[in-house]
Every structure is written in C-alpha cells, then in structure tokens.
Amino acid sequence: MTESPSATPDGAACRIGGPPDKLVYLDNAATSFPKPRSCLEGMIETYARLGVSPGRGSYDLSEEASALVDDTRRRLAAFFDAPDPERVVFAANATDALNLAIQGMVRSGGHVVSTRLEHNSVLRPLWHLRQNGGIELDLVPFDRQGLVDPADVARAIRSDTALVVVSHASQVLGTVQPVAEIAAACAERGVPLLVDAAQSAGHVPVLLHAWGLSAIAFTGHKALLGPSGSGGLVVSPEAEIVTTRFGGTGIESASLTHTQSYPHRLEAGTLNLLGIIGLAEGLSYVQAHDMAASQRREMALVRRLRAGLAALPGVVVYSPEPRDGDVPIVTCNVGGMVAADVGAILDADYGIAVRTGLHCAPLVHQDLGTAEQGAVRFSVGHFSSDDDIARALQAMTAIAESG
User: Fold this and answer.
1) Which terminus of the chain, N or C, has less C-beta within 10 A?
2) Secondary structure (H, E, C), 45-101
3) Strand 111-115 to strand 136-140: parallel, antiparallel, or no bridges (unpaired)?
4) Active-site residue, 186 included
5) 215-219 vs 193-196, strand pairing mode
6) pTM of the entire structure?
C-alpha cells in the first residue's frame, strides 16, 4: 500500500495508510509523534556539521560539540529549576535515569517508599533490590481520584528509609501528584525524594529547587518532543548518587578509578550527541510555543474526549475528571471487550493509534480491576486536533454500539 505524507502545523510528515485519509495518533504518552519538522531538520543539520565525540578531543570541532552539550545542560537546569548544570546527567531515557538513581541511592538492607501508581521503570529496579539486595519496600496506595496522599507517604517513612520514589504523572490515569507536598514530608524526615517526570516534563512545570526535590528523572521522547534514546537525571546539590557504571569519561584517564565529579560520575562512555542535539531542539520548540498555553489546549481536547467516552453506553472511564495541571490522558474500556481487540479495531478500521494493555503499570491495573483485560489509553499531544477527538469519539461510538 502506498503511503503519503500529510502536513501537520509544523509541516512534519505523518504516516498515512488504509481507508482513512489521515492517521489519528493518540499514543503520545508512549512517544510524541510526529516530531516537529524544524526539530528534525535542526538535529540532522547540526549533527552533520558537528558529529564528533564531545569531551574527547582538543581540536576545535570537538570543543564546539562539548560547548553544545554544556549549553544543553545549562538550558535543562534552568528548565527544571536546578541550581547546578553540572548535575544534569544525560541518560538513554527516564528508565535509564531511574536505574542510575535508584541503584545509586539505595543500600543493601535499606527501606524504600514508593507508590502503586508507578511504572515498571521504578517497580522493577526496586523489586530487583528487594529480591537480591535485601531492601524492604512499602508501596503507598492511590485514591479514587488517582492521587497519592502525602500523609500516607509520611506515615510510611521509617527511621531506616533511604529513599522515596514517586511518579509525577500517572501514565494510566493522567493525574499529577502533589510532589511538592510529598517533598516537604520527606524533608521533615531527612529522606531524599526521587521524582519520575517521564510523563510530566514538557506538559507541566517540574521544579527541583522550588519543590525541594532530590532528583528528577526525565525522558526526551515524550512531551519534550525530542528523539528516542534521550533523557537524563537532574540531581540536587544536596543529593549524592553512588557510581554504578564505570568507563571512559574523557577526563582523569590515567586513573583506574572512575571520576567522582559530576556529571561524569554518572556518565560512562561517549554521549549520545545526536540525541542531545534533538533534545535541545525539542526543548526550544516547547519553550517557543508557550508550554502553559499548549497544556491548556491539550487538556481542553482531553476533557472533550473524556466527556464523550463517559457518555457512551458500556464504556467505563478510569481516568478521573481532568484537573488543571494534569496531563492529557484518558483510559477506558468497552464493556467486556479485551482492550487489545478494541485497539486493533481502532487501528485497522479507523486509522486511530492508541495504547492498549497494562501500560507497564501492573499495580495500577490490579487496583482498577483491569489486570486481565487491560485498558485502552488515549493520549493527546502537541499536534492533536479537534478533528482527531471527533474521529476517536465516532469510532468508539461505533465499537460500543456493536459490542
């Protein structure tokens, strides 16, 4: 089947195929798509000119690449309200950054507090440490509004608690957690707070210093509109993370001990320069288009979508009524249909891309009662339109009526 491009507001190409004349992409919580054309072109142009190893040579081109990396650290530090750009550490994605932080902050035999809202990028490292490192783990529940109570987190903290880890925004429900209040509870007890901002960074503010966070893990390929393989960890000057990866850094090469200066203590090997360039381009695009205004527009679309889904007979909506400051996600099911079947119909018959299954958050689905059938997740993005929402509701109406 021949595929043809369709213009988005930024001129990016979108895959087209099948009977519908335009793909409706509503899986932005997995990866934002399409990427802005200006970001893609800027990334390729810069890398074609500057694609050498940053920090690995004294020649002009290498130093220019290093300057670009350093400038991106400074911009990300300002974006995340972090006082020290040297403590912006590049990683492959939020999962990579969370592994760096969790395994570098938790000692054998320690105690960790997290929540039942978490993604497997938090749950699996903690479960690994529980099985192999002898840590103890308490998981705080969420309420019917999809929120974690800071008081519950405070009550779970013990004298031997080494770390609290909280997802800022739920990838299943779209709810944004009160991390500033949770951070205050942690600070009173002298416990560091690590925040998973994979779903929130680029949608809503995430503020390290103002909220008193110890570290933020983020990814570049979602709401920051960067490429896959980009992301990082933003670390407070008061937090310390032990090195768990070792290798070349471009500095102190005569020593067989990995350097302990930031950011190199957590960065081993040649950086993903292309990804960092793309992340910088995406950040520029987000900031140029007023993040707050974009979030309001996206939340207006998701409110319309949720209201329409909730009105359909047989459709169960799990995401609560969106609040200002939430992220644009709606998760639902159609009667007793398996979520994967609904997703397949949306794709094959209507050209609508969504995410089905457990969304890498098995405990959320256990608590929702959807662990067996999974659920259908719609996630709005920067290029989503009124027409996309209309088509999604039209398709879900037909599926609900036939089901």
Assistant:
1) N
2) HHHHHHCCCCCCCCCHHHHHHHHHHHHHHHHHHHHCCCCCHHHEEEECCHHHHHHHH
3) parallel
4) no
5) parallel
6) 0.93
pLDDT in tens, 5-62: 333 445 443 332 334 468 999 999 999 999 999 999 999 999 999 999 997 778 999 9
pLDDT per position as a tens digit, 218-227: 999 999 999 9
Give the span between the Cα atoms of 14 and 95, in whole angstroms. Answer: 27
CATH number, domain with residue 263: 3.40.640.10
Half-sphere exposure of residue 258, counting CA atoms within 13 Å on the CB side? 16
Number of domains in the chain: 2
Please list the residues that pair with 90 across neighbouring strands: 232
Judged by phi (left if over 0) then psi (alpha if -120 to 50, else beta), residue 252 lies in left
What does the alpha-carbon distance between residue 209 and residue 199 come to, in Å, rounded to a whole number? 20
Which 8-state DSSP code applies to residue 318? -
Cα-only R_g, the chain: 22
Range of the domain at 362: 24-30+290-402
Q: Which residues contact 152 (CB under 8 A, 6 or more apart)?
A: 140, 141
User: What six digits make up the tokens of 88?
Assistant: 């912006």
Would you report the helix, strand and coil content of the chain in percent, each value rounded to 5?
40, 15, 45
Would you tell me the crossing angle of helices 291-310 and 386-402 to the nearest 10 degrees?
Answer: 20
